[in-house]
Amino acid sequence: MNRFSPFEASLWFATAEPAPATRALAESLDADVCIVGAGYTGLTTALELAKKNVSVVVLEAQEAGFGGSGRNAGHCTPTFTHYSLGELRRMLGEPWAERLIQRQTRANDRVGAMIRDYQIACEWQQNGYVMGALQPANIPALEQKVEEYNAVGARTRLLNDGAAREITGSPRLIGGWQHEEGGHLNPLGYARGLARAVMQEGGRLFTHSPVRSVERQAGRWRVETPKGAVLADKVIFATGAYTVGGWPKLEQTFKIMRVFVAATQPLSEETRRHVLPQNTTMHDGRGDIYVYKYDRDGRIVASMFPMGRRGVDLAYTRQVMTDRLKWLHPDIREEIRWEYLWFGELDMQYRTVPRLYDLAPGIVGLTGLSGRGVPTGSMLGGILSEWAMDVPEKDLSLRLEPLRAAPFYMAFGPQLSLRYHRAKEWLSARRSGSPLPPHA
């Protein structure tokens, strides 16, 4: 799917609660803070500020949740990708690392509270997350996860083969890592609910209002749209992977990595008794990631990264997803039909943690969520609202950095990493005699 096309193939667009009524900006407004981008990051920032009686305007080029916030698979797992917590501490330094770890690992508390407080209808289920182990070589890394995440207050445990199979229904697993606080939801429904909450608290949201320019005016910032403008003391760019213009070179701070998500028909009660019987979120544990969970109607919603023909040849893509699902769950007897298939884009950083850029006095931009959108975007609102409320830089949970382009190798590095892990797992499985899924 083209990044700027509507959600014709998206399950979420077909099933999410309607968006609140909004309009394009067609006048000149005054605000304390202008936020560009109505995804999770922009909306949670606006919500935090509006609750504190800060005058806030949100400008969105399309509609609330149009980008990654409405296109992701709906997993809400408050963890970090790629790097261990120890590696993050060495990379980010203290106190920045510990502050960010605490915010990220408690992010689902914020998600659950906002859903509860604003009665957001988004299929929220907090039944845990399981990362499986398909071969003995997977176990040491899962043991490390238990030690590291439990040390910072998360509720996780190592699963033996029996427990992993009981929770997930997959006889292929020899163990796993369970994060009891993991959850899943309808991501577009959540974004629309956040938009409604912002408006409920007095924030002003304008859709179909792309930012054309930002210029200094009388000691403040004038944010221009095609038919209107906002004069604000502070400006926050929170456009993520869907950054287009607005501020020079902001779109160069990350590289795009595509992901696709697909949803089956509603599965039979018999299948659902054997596949994810506890309605948890499942990661099969391979570096060539396959993550899946149910929606409210009993559809399996699964995501993978494009590789070779996968993601290009859609018939082949559906076959790969079916073969992986049925390999993990041989008890599935019914035909699998992937009735929805759509694409999203990730704003990848080599650190795989967000970067907060000091663009000008009173203006920041944040990019680089790197695929951890729901919990990460939800907790970032707390950090950005603190910046807007003049919390000193030394006390923030992200370090302010000068604008810099992402390294050139990020254009191909994530794909190379997927292929590397795929080859490594293939060799490890051959040595241990572990079975491999189709298309491995």
Automatic annotation (TrEMBL):
Cellular component, GO annotation: cytoplasm
Molecular-function GO terms, alphabetical: oxidoreductase activity
SUPFAM superfamilies linked: FAD/NAD(P)-binding domain
Keyword Oxidoreductase: yes
Keyword check for Chloroplast: no
The FAD dependent oxidoreductase domain, residue ranges: 32-387
Keywords: Oxidoreductase
Name by which UniProt lists this protein: FAD-binding oxidoreductase
Organism, as annotated: Jiella avicenniae
Lineage of origin: Bacteria, Pseudomonadati, Pseudomonadota, Alphaproteobacteria, Hyphomicrobiales
